[in-house]
Amino acid sequence: MEGSEEFESEEVDALFFTGETEAAPAQETGYLNEAYSYKQIGSIAKYVEPVSSRSSMDAVLDLFKNDSTLNAVPVEEYDHVIGIIDRKTVDKATGSAWKRFTSGNVGECTTRVDSIFHANEFIEKSINEVTRINRSTGIEYFPVFVGRSFLGLVSLDDFLTRIADIREKDLQKASVIQTAQFPTEAELAALPYKVTVWNRMANMLGGDAYLAYRISEDESIVGVFDVSGKNVAASLLTMTVSSFFKALAKLPCAPRSAVQIVSLLDVYLASVVPPGNFITSILCYMDMKKRRMHIFNCGHTTTFLFYREPGSTAPVKSASILPKLPPFGMGAIGDQLAKPGSPKEHPYLLLEMRSGIHLDLYSDGFTDMQNSDGIRFEEKNACEFFRKLYETPDEQVGNTIGEAVDKYIGGTLIPDDITVMDIRV
User: How would you class 105 by CB atoms within 10 Å of its CB: exposed for 0-12, middle for 13-18, buried for 19 or more?
Assistant: First the structure.
């Protein structure tokens, strides 16, 4: 940021450190939200003037008749709210002239709420108690207090609506954070070879990730990761992978060889990935000075390599790079890479870097996508698509991938995250 800004000092309370300082939207008129964060019960409490337990049922009936939006009224006894009386109860007690004549006072029809809900309590922590009361008693409206003073009423629907909104906002924030861990367009463009990435998550958070890690001016690693599982848990693991490489870039004595980096990543992930989870990946180590490529397929989908001599009109040659290494998170990759043997026996592919080589990496969401008839795209179609993509100009690759996905799935939803990375030497 250019220039500098002056900031006035301000008081910071405990809520600042818990992330609960976001105020409730001001447009929610009628709700007492100004003094409470969006996640506190006080922000959804709506003030309704209490009635005395000694009031007649006719008086409460008039309140409901005069306000169609009113569904419950707090009932007080000796200047203290003891419970509520709702519209259903009043309608039942005054449904006929005889019932109105024989009905007692409000106190006789009051539903008492024994649990006390305070305005500064957090909605998500209170929802279990609210639903327990609702299931056992049928109560849908709850008085909220500040100390011993009545603040307003909240309904079960208020709780559920706000929780859904809170979680939606949290997912949106998490999605922004996850996306920020991926390489930027500028970082991809700075690589000494052409890399195009197309990504679409099946949900707001996903289990796919892609990488562009610059080791030196001449050395770099690019690749795609696919975490077992979906949504929040999977997205946390993608951020773990990203954080590994971001931390590696800051270490003055970080490993530089492809084998060292891949082995270290597996050791690290084996210590943090929960049992039963794993991360597949295809990683490409590119050495522009020595003109060499190391390709590590760690339990991932097939990677396709295409090649044609520059200027030639011959058909494009193709090869499939199958997984020869286990997925990350099992702690077994380092042992596999440490085994002695000739280059032909290595569990990774070592290639001469030639102009005209195209590598196409993808997560299994690409081959698992289905059309309107439920037919999967499959690996064979993926290979043919990438063969045609070889002829596509660099600047059109991303759009071509997106159009192909949209055309195939039509109006159906994708069952899994899709990531495609096109590498051109």
Answer: middle
